[in-house]
Records
---
Amino acid sequence: MSAQMDKRRPYIRSMNSWWKRDPYFIRYMGMEATSVLVALYAAILLVGLLRLSQSEAAYNGWLDALKSGPSIALHAVILVVFLYHLWSWFKVMPKTMPMIFVDGKKLPAETITYTGVTVAVVVNVIVLIILV
Amino acid sequence: MADSTKTIEMEVLRYRPEQDKEPFYQTYSVPFTDDWSVLQGLQYIKDDLDSSLSFRWSCRMAICGSCGVMIDGVPKLGCRTFLRHYHPNKVRVGPLEHFPIERDLVVVVEDFIKKLESIKPYIIPKEPRKLEQGEYLQTPAQLEKFRQFSTCINCMLCYAACPQYGLDSKFTGPGILALLHRYNADSRDGGQEERMNLGHSEEGVWGCTAVAYCSEVCPKGVDPANAINQNKMGSAIDYFLRFVAPRGAGK
């Protein structure tokens, strides 16, 4: 090895707190974190299903628990988080799909995102109408 | 210099392995005009203020891919980023993140080059072809399937934007996986199976968690995140197909 090569001492930077380095990474971590509440909400629904399988009284108890103050507050938070989850999910969607060509032109990412969001909103409104 | 000359403070990361224990920022006052790029600022420092500063550059017109640096924490090409956008604030210039620092703004690129070779970034013909058979013909639609991914200039900005590569450099990374897709998607190519031994692996497309900052910082609109993630579906199908139709014992 030459004397010049001996002087090589590549410096490796730490990745500690990497996600705080760039606002883009913070948004990414926020997006990933929404899935925790998505899982939590799935658990709430599964508990409801479990209670339904047990007895009518058990199920009514679960319904009453949902109507409590803390539960409504939690649901309000979950709703907001879900909206961000919905938006960020469809924002990433164009990246995960094969390219779509219409008349020889690539379908813009925005079209895919907005179509997805529109479909999700319409489906949710229909579900809401059926439930209410 | 013309009357419109202003002065900007450039904070440049210095690391001289023979004398510095760790990198530090050094501030230079750089006079500039509105048409000056960050690269020109660095060249002014080297020519007129401090000849010991090291950085890579070549074409000055965003095609050689040499002058990628972190500018105020964002991976950018020094030659297509203008000092006027940062003035009157100071601007901070550092070496590309996630690569070891060789010296000042120069990073170690051996890992990138090794990976680039590993994906066979060239057309592997489907069958031997004689000169008399003439050129390969390709329709505009066939071209569009890979054209966007072929504009990569290997500037490595996407690597500096990819935390997955920073956390585990075994990951092949955005730019090279986009090139892998570029050749796989080419109608003249028959090398998909050879390349996808790597592509299907954890070091390949599955190392990506769709942060997608790579596509944001790419100066050429390659969209590596799309190239990688559209391969995940194919990779998943390939994985499950082996249970339906087992491959040869040799594979």
Note: Chain A touches chain B through 25 residues (CB under 8 Å).
---
Amino acid sequence: MSDKPRKFKGGVHPNDSKALSAHKPIQEAPLLDSYKVIMHQNIGAPPELLVKKGDEVKKGTLLAKAGGFVSVPLHSPTSGTIKMIDKVPGPTGISVPCIEIAADGEDEWDSPFEPITDWKTTDPVELRQRVWDAGVVGMGGAAFPSHVKLSPPDDKKIDMLILNGAECEPYLTADHRLMLENAKEVVIGGSILARILGLESCVIGVENNKPDAVEMLKKAAANHSVHVQDLPVNYPQGAEKQLIYAITGREVPVGALPMDIGCVVQNVASAAAVYEAVVNGRPSIDRITTVTGKPLVDPGNWKFRIGTPISKALELAGGITEQPAKLLLGGPMMGIAQSSLDVTTMKNTSGILLIAQDEVSQYTSEPCIRCGRCVDCCPMQILPATISQAVENHRFDWAEQLNVMACIECGSCSYSCPSHRPLNQQFKRAKVEIRAGLRKKG
Amino acid sequence: MSDETPKINLPDPTQLVVSNSPHMRDKPTINVIMFWVVGAMLPGCIAAVLFFGLAALKVLLISTLSCVIAEEAWNKAMKRPSTWRDGSAILSGILLGMNLNAGAPWWICMLGGILAMILGKQLYGGLGFNPFNPVLVARVGLLIGFPGIMTTWDKPDLGNMAIDGITAATPLGLAPGETLLQDMLLGNVGGCLGETSALALIVGGAILIWKKLIKWEVPLAFVGTVFMITGAMHLVNPEAYHSPFVHVLSGGLLLGAFFMATDMVTSPMTHKGAWIFGFGCGLITSLIRLWGSYPEGVSFAILFMNALTPLIDRGTIRKPFGFVAPAKGEA
């Protein structure tokens, strides 16, 4: 039953710092006076606005409908009136359109759809439509619409569904608490997803630094054909391609998608959102987020509705004892640094992380000493040091030949570099340049 | 909830640093790595001082100081920031001392330091840019310029001396008896500081491999190749060729294999490349030792392979995860 997972080549072992919040149960965040819901919360096309200023909405009312196939609808996190439709600072620092809802305090539900209790006999097409209608996206960080992955073209045979509960980013414990406290939802969500794909079973992959979650999942999975696979701790174990390899031994070809080798991966939080959408008939309007970091008084895990400002989340964690150096959305390896406390949570906000002054220092990057640490730890088996040289010489054609496009931007190379070279940053730039077709002649 | 929040402090957003991920860095920096390598050199240094006395200490100190001073003087002249704290000059200095004879005059040590740091390293742009191992550039430079001084070895003070200068005059007449091997292992033989105690070098090498500071493939391929080639020749004609054990334990082979050929800057980055590099070093060393006009070939072998390193790196570009041959991958 439990065959040993394969170990992908490379990877790093940063201090996981999960102890700050791993033992804190999920708390429901109190209702706020207003929510600023960022409109474009998914990869793909932005949704189309359906409401205007002054409209009355209920909790779950459709605010915007999907703007295409690779797009998802957006629902109101509470009942109240639309205060304004404006721009707020987005997580990337660029202002983005948002819908501000003034809460009326009633928090009254009006879900656009009914529960489907007999999902075991429901047509998979209807279930998939429900996943779409509920606005479920990849909640691990990418925010890719879940229903798209559940709609493989006819020529792609899917034989493996993997739920990603690796949570390999240091500090984050949101998925851990979810799997521990809501194991049943995750398992049933996984079973629903399997049914949509026409599969009998699915596998949940969890890094073995969460033995309690593995145990709860196994208990919950007892009556379902869901297999729980514990995985070695090795960042980036939760990266889609590395996870697929660890569990199935299949390698996603460069430039291809998991569905090309018969695999679909969904985040465990997305599976729980699918459970909510199908079994309880409720759209995706909240998620569990870890608010953590050494400067915080009381780190923990909260269930936040979308549109909660970071400042409110930090207040719930008791505020700070010292000025942090950085504020991140996500984990320390791939998270995005923020410069405003007004940014609001989205469906993919897995963590709000404060990094203390003494945890970071400003580095001057030094020359490469060719030690090969980046080469050893690259999970995609490319040659970071050599590509870095190409990028520094504006030889994007060379970088492309060296397979920079295969880079998953996990940051392991930058993490390991003793010269503190900005490898990850250079590769991101190279990918943008190559995509833009701006090749310079060398 | 609002009335019990008087003392909650929030971050000052204007003080937040915005930078690219990752926001965590592994602890080892260049100087941490360099000082670990220096630490791995210590057993060899201690053995050298034990066998050659304070003269060895003097050589090590002068070489190290001259490397540091040469590098800093160059930085000053070129108006560049000081770099000695990265530890690479100190490491080069100690390695240079290990490549010299205990009786080497002070000015040879100084000249070596200048050659290593200026000619071997800074002229190319400093740390990370030199194609050749700076210490070997200095050693070979001195060997060519002052062959007399560079091939006269002091006798160790401890125990009996069976041979006078294993590298200077490879003692083909001497049967490779057990005493000789034992002496070579412990370091009771003539040679430069780092060519004496094989045991101390092996301990240092083990530290390097354990701390993952070097690629273990290089010393293994290097020593293994020398052992096999010289062993084959020994089997063919034991009268004319030395036992492979003598070859492995003598001269600068272990010093070269563990500490010089593994220099990160001048050796290949991939593990496959490390095998090729180590094999090449072993092959050339054997050829020079067995049939060349020099008694010792380690330095030349490593320098030669240094020159081939960019080529090896080019030739060993690995396939990425999920690589598909272009012909098959049409979809």
Note: The first helix of chain A runs from residue 124 to 133.
